[in-house]
Amino acid sequence: MKKTHILYTTLLLLFGLYACEKDKIPYEELSDSKEGALVFTARARDGIQKLKTFSIEEEKYLEKDTLTFNAGFGALGLPSTTIDVTFSLDNKVLDSINAMREINGEKKYIPFPKDAYEVSNLNLSIPKGKEYSDFSTIIYDPKKFDTNSNYLIAFTITDASGYAINPEVKTIIFVVSEIIIPEPEPNFYDKNNWKVIAFSSEESEGEGSDGFAANIIDGKINTYWHSCWSTCSITQSNYPHTITVDMKTLNKVNGIEFTQRQSGSRGVKLIEIEVSDNNESWRTLGEFNLLNTTAPQLAEYKDVETYRYFRMIIKSGYDDSGAAFVALGEVSPYFLK
In terms of domains, do 90 and 144 share one? Predict the structure, then answer.
């Protein structure tokens, strides 16, 4: 009875081992067949890898960083021997992409600077019974990349121990794009309490509700100031025209946004800006040529200026009929954060 039990147990064990061997999943079996097997670059399916080298928010280069890539194996089964995979720097990819960018009118890529990166190893191995190789590591230095240029580097599998290489995912591409720092948006001061405290002339009768100097700071681009033309002296109607504004407090100002009269006529052309802290001692910030357009336009200072009063000295205009007749819609000092 005891012998029968032992024999029965042995048969069950053998049958179980046979069943497990028989039920083994095909793609887990080791195979030396190259038929249908493909070697590929693992991260190539993710598309072009974009590297970050510069922080726009902090306006500075980032520190050295690393990235990795490796090779993969795809087949019905796993390799029965180690597959040695060789990657090579591929400049043909750079030329091909640049040819397309030239057709599209885009800025071309240039190669990564030689001193900007180090590659640990381009000879990788997919071990027996495994799907992926070890990793190659690239250390790159963001400070070596010019922010005004586009860079590209590509690595392609050139040998895989006799295995076929997947042509669609054999190359990994890394790019560094030029840094475009957006221009800061102007922030405008609240003009509710401001006051025009002096002007050389204004048209108080012939322009209806318009023509007044105070209109240039009322926050409405459809109202306007116009130099005097109906009941004024020769001095008042001639250049230069001046308007002085009191902002009631010292403000830091990067420039002034000017908006011409919205009808498009009698626009201001040449204007000088003077500023003061006390309405007694004045300093000039230079002359500015305004465009003959109804769109708002910025006259930007070379440096940030702090002042309370500003005076506009209008020296010439567009289509002024030779009589120094000019108009101006709105004036808005601004600061940049």
Answer: yes
